[in-house]
Amino acid sequence: MYGSSTTELDQTLQAYDYRLPEHLIAQSPLVPRDSSRLLVVQQQAHQHRIFQDLVTLLRPGDLLVFNDTRVIPARLLGRKVNSALAQPVEVFLLEPRQPLTWLALVKPGRRLKPGAIIEFGPPEQPLLRAEVLATDVDTRGRIIQFQSLIDQSFEDLLEQLGEVPLPPYIQNSAARPEQYQTVYAEQPGAVAAPTAGLHFTPELLAHLQSQGIHQARLTLHVGIGTFRPVETNDILSHKMHSEWVDLPAATVDTIKATKARGGRVISVGTTVTRALEGASQLGPLKAWQGRTDLFIHPGYQWRVVDGLITNFHLPKSSLLMLVSALVGRERLLALYEDAIAHQYRFYSFGDAMLILPEAVIAERAQYFSS
Question: Does residue 57 share a domain with residue 206?
Fold first, then answer.
């Protein structure tokens, strides 16, 4: 029904639009995490299941790859002090550039030009100071240098003063900060959660392992590259912002062993997918630390990933294009229509989709030797 070849329409931004009723945007996570719904995409059909059913939907010998990044308290509220009035300021950290120097989004941007000074903490005894050094053209953000005003490290002050940011479409949430972290989050550095992993519980992870479904980890610090909107009508003109990846040797070895025995590599989330496929662009898969700006869209030839667990993504987003590269744009939009009809919950705290390898229609590159 749905072909694997791409068309000119697949390259246009408007082709990735859909209408979502606002009440389906999840504002808080379900408890327990693995009670969310799961849309299971098979070769010709799809099923409506529960996330806990993952144990019976995967095979012994399959491999789940997780992103163990941890969301930092990247949202800081302060005040601009080198002006007539101490004006309120919001700073949203994106990524470190040098020690104590960060790329950040700021509000109000028009008032925070190079030379502006921002302080954080009590007005009578501020704890942290920052100076705006420059404007970043690519992101329209600012390069900001921090200085601790007390005998504490920047990292400790960030934990004390910062807030774990929630996406802007979550406006009325009772979620606690730890609910926007995966249960296996270890490596601080992300400014948004790898949300496909939010559905896993320690009990489910243990159950999967007991059934012979293997697990491995990598780190991709989720940054602006993941949630930056596609703004060009020709999607091929879109430039992804790069994100930092750490692919350990142990994970590479596990992937190769899985492929050799006929097992399937299932990415837990689009960030894992970008990390693995980004690493594959460099030659034979090996341990790697670096940045990837890989933009996956229909027509992409897959090298490592066989299947995918993912949440439901925003219209016209690069994440929607990535998933379309696996199952085809037309089928994905039809699946979204059915999810909406069945009142699935969308976006970060929403329900999930499992794309089984037999549903993948995209072409595969000859990458792993037989």
Answer: yes
CATH number of the domain that 282 lies in? 3.40.1780.10
Establish whether the linkage from the previous residue to 96 is cis, with ω within 30° of 0.
no
To the nearest 10°, the Cα dihedral for 51, 54, 55, 61? Answer: -150
Please confirm whether the linkage preceding 108 is cis (ω < 30° from 0): yes
340, two tokens:
């909406």
Range of the domain at 242: 9-71+174-359
Same domain, 130 and 193: no
Instruction: Name which of 13, 347, 332, 317 is nearest 180 in CA terms.
Output: 347
Residues 118, 225 within the same domain = no
Pairwise CA distance, residues 53 & 69, whole Å: 25
Q: Considering the entire predicted model, what is its pTM?
A: 0.94
Same domain, 83 and 66: no
Residues 6+ apart with CB under 8 A from 72: 93, 158, 162, 164, 188, 189, 190, 191
Q: Is residue 369 part of a domain?
A: no
Q: Is 367 helix (H, G, I), strand (E, B) or coil?
A: coil
* DSSP class of 370: -
| Domains: count for the chain | 2
Chain CA centroid to CA 170, Å: 16
The CA-based dihedral angle spanning residues 130, 132, 138, 139, taken in that order and rounded to the nearest 10 degrees: 50
Q: Are residues 198 and 301 in the same domain?
A: yes
Q: From first to last of its 370 residues, what are the pLDDT tens digits of the chain?
A: 444 567 889 999 999 999 999 999 999 999 999 999 999 999 999 999 999 999 999 999 999 999 999 999 999 999 998 776 778 999 999 999 999 999 999 998 877 899 999 999 999 999 999 999 999 988 889 999 999 999 999 999 999 999 999 988 998 788 898 999 999 999 999 999 999 999 999 999 999 999 999 999 999 999 876 667 788 999 999 988 889 999 999 999 999 999 999 999 999 999 999 999 999 999 999 999 999 999 999 999 999 999 999 999 999 999 999 999 999 999 999 999 999 999 999 999 999 999 999 999 878 888 886 4
**Residue 167: inside a domain, yes or no?**
no
CA distance 353 to 330: 16
